[in-house]
């Protein structure tokens, strides 16, 4: 029996299913989480299906979360999508369920759950959820609501199909989703557009990015700067990919200071492998897109030096 068949069997067994994803969700986190929820609601209308976690203001156009009491977890199946390690799961009550399933496309460096389906070759977790529905066309119902969410997740994690993780299968699945009658153009605009304050921060980033001779880039966004622009941490996600359009930039880090003083580190690359670097600094992720943490500016400088070394080695 395949892991997908095992997951479907567990879904059929439970009358109550609660779906989580990671903190500070992006379109793929919400797309996979709520896309799966919509598939299950359409397929099993008699079951209780919940989606939980914090709501991100800028992504309300995709989905809203639900508030559930602790007792709802009693005897429930919990599914977590798009989350590599347990500490990043939004709403730590995921532990209260009877059984836990992990569905993810990040490297499985920190396994959790009773049943695990990880596919690091998938462009996104939304691609995996779509594949799951397509594997069982006579047993699972993929409707327009789910298709819209899953398409948004794929678009988000592939950078509109520009990133290396985009495969022929990714495009085939996106084509299948586009056959459903949702407004893909409007959805793309909503994903892409940003508030004026974030646009102004983008200008700051381009003006202040530091790049060495091997293409290692660095931008520090201090709390003072974020306050000046009226931006919170979740909104900085919109600027993380911007250095990638600069031809001199090969790999880069965006260092976002948190209210507590430490720095959230977003790492991206056009070629050099960066997830091993991220693991050394309390993080991890994909080979070309990872996250980490730096306790102070000294560790920020250390991480940037490591990005420089990686870029230098890659150029040789």
From TrEMBL:
Q: Which UniProt keywords apply?
A: Hydrolase
Is-annotated flag, keyword Protease? no
- What are the DHHA1 domain coordinates in residue numbering? 225-312
| Species annotation | Enterococcus hirae
Keyword Hydrolase on entry? yes
Entry-linked SUPFAM superfamilies: DHH phosphoesterases
Which residue range or ranges hold the DDH domain?
16-154
Q: Which InterPro entries match?
A: DDH_dom, DHH_sf, DHHA1_dom, Oligoribo/pAp-PDE_c-di-AMP_PDE
Superkingdom of origin organism: Bacteria
Q: Name one GO molecular function term.
A: hydrolase activity
Protein's UniProt name: DHH family protein
EC numbers on record: 3.1.-.-
Judged by the first EC level, this protein's enzyme class is hydrolase
């Amino acid at each position: 029996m395949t892991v997908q068949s095992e997951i479907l069997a567990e879904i059929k067994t439970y009358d109550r299913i609660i779906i989580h994803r990671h903190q500070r969700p992006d379109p793929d986190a919400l797309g996979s989480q709520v896309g799966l929820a919509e598939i299950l609601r359409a397929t099993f209308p008699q079951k209780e299906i919940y989606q939980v976690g914090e709501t991100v203001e800028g992504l309300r156009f995709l989905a809203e979360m639900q508030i559930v009491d602790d007792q709802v977890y009693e005897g429930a199946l919990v599914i977590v999508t798009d989350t590599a390690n347990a500490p990043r799961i939004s709403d730590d009550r995921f532990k209260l369920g009877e059984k836990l399933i992990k569905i993810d496309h990040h490297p499985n460096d920190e396994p959790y759950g009773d049943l695990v389906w990880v596919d690091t070759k998938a462009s996104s977790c939304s691609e995996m959820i779509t594949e799951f529905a397509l594997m069982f066309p006579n047993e699972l119902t993929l409707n327009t609501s789910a298709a819209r969410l899953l398409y948004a997740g794929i678009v988000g994690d592939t950078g509109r199909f520009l990133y290396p993780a985009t495969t022929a299968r990714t495009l085939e699945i996106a084509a299948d989703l586009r056959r459903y009658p949702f407004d893909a153009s409007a959805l793309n605009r909503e994903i892409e557009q940003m508030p004026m304050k974030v646009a102004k921060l983008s200008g700051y980033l381009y003006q202040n990015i530091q790049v060495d001779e091997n293409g290692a880039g660095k931008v520090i966004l201090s709390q003072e700067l974020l306050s000046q622009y009226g931006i919170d941490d979740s909104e900085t996600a919109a600027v993380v990919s911007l250095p990638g359009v600069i031809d001199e930039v090969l790999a880069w880090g965006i260092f976002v200071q948190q209210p507590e003083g430490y720095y959230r580190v977003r790492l991206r690359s056009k070629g050099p492998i960066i997830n091993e670097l991220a693991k050394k600094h309390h993080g991890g992720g994909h080979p070309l897109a990872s996250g980490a943490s730096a306790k102070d500016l000294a560790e920020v400088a250390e991480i940037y030096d490591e990005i420089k070394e990686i870029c230098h080695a890659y150029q040789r």
